[in-house]
Design goal:
The chain is of the alpha+beta class. It has helices spanning 6-23, 60-87, 92-119, 126-135, 161-169, 173-186, 200-204, 215-221, 250-283, and strands at 36-40, 43-46, 146-155, 189-191, 198-199, 224-228, 232-242. The chain folds into four domains: 6-87, no CATH class; 90-119; 126-136 and 249-283; 143-242, Chitinase A, domain 3 (Roll). α4 packs across α9 and α5 crosses α6 (173-186). This is Peptidylprolyl isomerase. Keywords: Signal. Residues 1-19 form the signal peptide.
């Protein structure tokens, strides 16, 4: 229980005990150690219920104000619930059924997650991924164009921009190192990852390239593109491209296939668990179905 000032406790306890004596003499709950804060219908709010709610470090006036606000809010909610209960009385059984169903769902979800986490093997071999990719090509059509590309964004006043233009067009290892050094020193943004596929629209977001409505032509016809705004120059070199509606490269969708295969294992594992529990209960005669 959080620490309150002794003066605050005496003040609240004394005041509320008087009120409780006047309004609750017919009640039998009545432990002298319980301090009543508020009542609404048959519901009672006790001071002890606020022990973990009242913030530490409040002054006496602030603590009193906090308790008063909480009690007011509690009363409003209880009155609203009482009204709602009366108005929906005809649906009470349906509500109870939904609550019970949802409780069962939450318990089952927690149990299944715990069981899967303890027993599932999350290792997926390269061969499994390749087999699934080969046997399900219709599931892996690109919805967006993807690229392996370099993008460098540098201020217009940056020294050596002409050399950067030359380096970004090149595939020579030394030129790549020079471009990396340039980007580290001067670029406001750079993307020099040409071994992994990237969604093209994500790469050019927040650049003038994104304003070009004919990006497909840019991808098809250009290995290098340059544009600018008032502050920056944008250098883009596309090393490899796959257009939307084309088959997705295996490397791009490997994480997706991995997740699919793991989910299949989960479904199979839980189905086997359900059957096991059923058969064990059947052998032990722990249930009976009356309908033949």
């Amino acid at each position: 229980m959080r620490n309150f000032s002794i003066l605050f406790l005496l003040l609240v306890t004394g005041t509320l005990l008087i009120a409780a004596c006047n309004t609750d003499k017919k009640s039998n709950r009545q432990s002298t150690s319980e301090t009543v804060l508020a009542k609404a219908g048959n519901d009672i709010l006790y001071l002890s219920e606020l022990s973990d709610i009242i913030p530490d470090g409040l002054s006496q006036p602030d603590s009193t104000a906090f308790v008063k606000r909480y009690a007011e809010s509690w009363v409003r909610k209880r009155l609203l619930m009482d009204q709602a209960t009366r108005e929906t009385e005809g649906d009470a059984e349906e509500i109870d059924r939904k609550v019970a169903d949802y409780r069962d769902y939450l318990i089952l979800q927690a149990f299944e997650k715990q069981y899967v986490d303890r027993h599932i093997d999350t290792t997926v071999s390269t061969a499994e991924i390749q087999d699934y990719y080969k046997n399900n090509p219709e599931n892996f059509t690109l919805q967006q164009s993807i690229v392996k590309a370099w993008l460098v964004v540098a201020p217009k006043t940056t020294p050596g921009l002409d050399r950067a233009r030359s380096w970004i067009r090149s595939n020579k290892p030394n030129d790549r190192k020079e471009l990396q050094s340039f980007a580290y020193r001067f670029a406001n943004f750079y993307h020099l990852e040409d071994t992994k596929w990237t969604i093209f629209n994500d790469l050019i977001r927040n650049t003038p390239f994104a304003d070009d409505k004919n990006n497909v032509a840019l991808l098809k016809n250009n290995h290098f593109a340059e544009t600018s705004d008032q502050q920056n120059v944008y250098l883009l070199a596309i090393k490899e491209v796959r257009l939307s509606s084309q088959p997705a490269p295996l490397a791009f969708i490997t994480p997706q296939i991995h997740e699919i295969l793991i989910n299949r294992r989960k479904v199979k594992m839980l189905h086997e668990l359900e059957n096991k529990i059923y058969e064990e209960a059947k052998n032990k005669k722990e249930f009976e179905i009356k309908i033949q």
